[in-house]
Amino acid sequence: FLRCDSGRLGLQGDPDQWIQVATGQGMRDVLLHLPRTVPKISKGVLVPLVISFHPMALTAGFWCYQQNFNPLADSEGFVVAYPQGIAPAESLSALFSWFPTSWLTRGGTWNAGSCCPGATRSHTDDVQFTRDLVRDLAGGTVKRLSGGRMDVDESRIYACGGSNGAFFVFRLACEAPELFAAVVAAAGVLANETRGPSQLTAWPSESFSCSASRSPLPILAFQGDADLLVRWNGQPLLNFRSVAENIKILKDWNSIPESCTGTVTFSNGRAVC
Asked: How far is the C-alpha of 99 from the C-alpha of 82, rounded, in Å?
């Protein structure tokens, strides 16, 4: 499960390979998937890049397996990067006495403000790491590893993430919106506020401000109303805002009137888009 795909890329080399990216906090690991085929492939064709951020306590390799993005990348012709969070996850047993101390401690985390330790406790600069990663991949790494057959289209770079990865995607949309054509977040909110009065002492936070100069950024957000940690109405113990408050911020970013309720495009039981 630590390896997504051991097949061979028809163009050159292995489709899945670990690379390292230099940042101000040292070398960072990224699992990179190059598509097996690219539509109408020719010398130097530009392809989209998707950067996918794993949940708390997972690894880039397992997230790659669990998300199963690579077959889609192969059929549609885009590059996928799975970065590895550098700060180890902390046990939630300090917050919840019933939580086993060995659970959710083997993978990494992202510093998304109020989510999640240990990246928030160590103040890891994951936003700068993402900037460095984009610069590296679009600055020649993809072109080199593909033997010159493809390069990153800088107008089609996307970010997505789940849980802690989703929180971090919202931080990227807040602080570095110019990097992306669109972002997708599942089970997370923007968590940039200062410590709340009800926040657990053991749960660290890092407040941050959003970029004042920004263009509209398409955002696709998923949230379930049965989530026990990222609660629909907010979780003051962890300093997570409510889904309604989060949507209000996203509307404000994109100059959408607060009164706009949108259009239902999909409905199946309690699932509504």
From this structure: 28
